[in-house]
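[Meeting: bench + compute handoff]

Bench side (C.D.) handed over the final construct sequence. Compute side (W.E.) agreed to return the predicted structure before the next meeting so the bench team could plan truncations. Sequence as handed over:
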Amino acid sequence: MTLDQLRKLRESQKQGMSHRNTEGKETTVIVGMGTCGIAAGAREVLNTILDKINDKGIQDILVKQTGCMGLCYAEPTVEVRAPGMPDTIYGNVDAKVATDIVEIHLVGKKLVDGHVFDKPAPDINKQ
């Protein structure tokens, strides 16, 4: 690798790491990275979410990893906690659904249909 390539790699890694800094971030995206999640494709989901957030220039979202969420049958799973929205767990997430989570849920402030596995009861959810 050349020095220029190493510098570019360092900058891209720094950008990805900025989404793990908690300071000033109210929205949290948690990707289930237990063994079952990784086997089901969670690494691709995590990378897609980070890429889409970076593509849109969004800085105020904290992206974290966790172990098993207890929803092994629905892996990969992604939990989203955003102000003004119900805490939501999405299941059977692939790269397309991960893109929808960023574009529809995080940017558009609407739930992504067909992949919601856990959210508050309808009488609590004012969406």
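W.E. noted at the follow-up: The mean pLDDT is 86. C.D. will use this when planning the next construct.
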